[in-house]
TrEMBL record:
UniProt domain Tyr recombinase: residue ranges: 179-433
Keyword set, alphabetical order: DNA integration, DNA recombination, DNA-binding
Family the UniProt entry places it in: Belongs to the 'phage' integrase family.
PANTHER family listed in its UniProt record: PHAGE INTEGRASE-RELATED (PTHR30349), PROPHAGE INTEGRASE INTD-RELATED (PTHR30349:SF64)
GO molecular function: DNA binding
Name of the protein in its database record: Site-specific integrase
A Pfam family this chain is assigned to: Phage_integrase
GO biological process: DNA integration; DNA recombination
């Protein structure tokens, strides 16, 4: 009989778990091993390993541990499935919702003992507690995906997450939590650019967001080759995101326990793979041309001291026509490669202006300009609303903003009854009669 081996493993969250493994029959002369992780202790791993080995030796089929808790199963699912198929930003969202909602309420149950009644009560309680419908939909999706994985891997016989219902025709016990989409008036915009004028590091990214409605990650992922001055268009080929790397004890000790973090910026596909080409107005064209010429002068002035960036793989352009060439994670650094990155958002010395500057913008807007509710998406919402104000077709707005479907566009931009929209429709009303 094979020997059971047990070893430590660390999940993405930093949690220590244990894994068992044993040798299986060789195939084509190559040794094969069976392993399973996610156990809280060596003892648990060894017991499960012995059981699995016994099943394997007797019938040639490895049985899974149906007594595993939902909390440990979620760790296993994230490690063995999600991290292989999901983008970093998606994983971050999953981990946050699992930590805040799923584990505290459901983590103590055995996977095999959770039934539909338990999950439906959990969903209804979220609704009654005032959670937004979008948040509940997201959590419901996690339940569906995780239990589908449990079903496919024989932890359960049927999925309890099928046909869960989100209440619609009942009054929640608490008011639904809503984050309003902020529309900035012309006075707000004037105040914003008076506070962050030309020459500040935030001016160019704010202007791009205001004139195009692009998402922050798309704005800060722009390179100059994405901009076609002759045809007055921007090609949205990617977004940029930050990947946090967990610090080791050695790294923490080296920095005396300070908050210095390890990680890097990386390019990935736009949200919902919304590759698109968008028209830009003459004002933005002028701003971008002036910035481009300024950066060339800065580079000449600083010479070898001008900050340069590179990507691990070659940047792709017109990706919407060649989606099979997508690169899920293309790291950006100052380490020289054959693939230079000529960022649009840069400071005088060439250093990259990251999306973190928008946090400083939001703080200043709240404290100095007194615009409550402003966030990094406010300019995007303002751009979309201005398009509707001026009679743009909903399909045009949807495709320009890169929404997954037109319902998203309508749900957001039909909620702003601005004075211009009201006046235009009052004219329509009077002309009807």
């Amino acid at each position: 009989m094979s020997e059971i081996m047990v070893r430590e493993r660390f999940l993405r969250s930093g949690k220590k778990v244990y894994e068992y493994s044993f040798e299986m029959a060789s195939v084509d002369g190559k040794r094969k091993r069976k392993s399973k992780s996610g156990f809280a202790s060596k003892r648990d791993a060894r017991i499960a390993g012995r059981k699995a080995l016994s099943e394997y030796e007797n019938v040639g089929q490895v049985m899974v541990d149906r007594d595993i808790s939902y909390a440990d199963f979620l760790d296993l699912w994230m490690e063995n499935d999600c991290k292989l198929t999901c983008k970093e930003s998606t994983l971050y969202g999953y981990e946050k919702k699992i930590r805040l909602y799923l584990k505290p309420e459901l983590g103590g149950y055995r996977v095999s003992s959770i039934d539909k009644k338990i999950l439906q009560t959990f969903i209804t309680d979220l609704y009654n507690d005032g959670f937004s419908i979008n948040t509940i939909i997201s959590i419901k999706g996690l339940l569906t995906k995780s239990f589908n994985y449990a079903l496919e891997n024989h932890y359960i016989m049927t999925s309890p997450a099928n046909r869960l219902v989100i209440p619609q025709n009942m009054q929640p016990d608490k008011p639904t939590r809503r984050k309003e989409h902020i529309y900035l008036t012309k006075d707000n915009i004037d105040s914003l650019f008076e506070r962050f004028p030309k020459g500040t590091s935030s001016f160019v990214p704010l202007q791009i967001a205001y004139h195009t409605g692009m998402r922050p990650g798309e704005v800060f992922g722009l390179v100059w080759d994405d901009i076609d001055f002759d045809n007055k268009v921007i090609n949205v080929n990617r977004q940029i995101q930050w990947r946090q790397v967990k610090r080791s004890k050695k790294d923490i000790k080296k920095t005396n326990g300070t908050s210095e973090s390890l990680g890097y910026w990386y390019f990935t596909s736009p949200k919902y793979k919304s590759y698109r080409v968008i028209d830009i107005d003459d004002v933005l064209v002028s701003i971008l041309k002036e910035e481009y010429e300024k950066q060339k002068r800065d580079e000449e002035y600083y010479g070898e001291f001008y900050k340069k960036y590179y990507s691990e793989f070659q940047l792709l352009f017109s990706v919407q026509k060649n989606k099979e060439k997508e690169i899920p994670l293309n790291e950006v650094s100052t380490k020289e490669t054959d693939f230079g990155v000529d960022f649009v958002c840069r400071r005088e010395d060439g250093s990259y202006v990251t999306s973190r500057t928008l946090q400083n913008v939001s703080n200043a807007v709240h404290k100095e300009l007194d615009i409550p509710g402003y966030d990094t998406y406010s300019l995007r919402h303002t751009h979309g609303t201005m398009l509707i104000e001026n009679g743009a077709d909903m399909v045009y707005v949807q495709r320009r903003l890169g929404h997954k479907n037109i319902n998203v566009t309508m749900n957001i931009y039909t909620n702003h009854l601005t004075p211009i929209i009201k006046s235009r429709n009052n004219i329509t009303l009077n002309n009807m009669y």
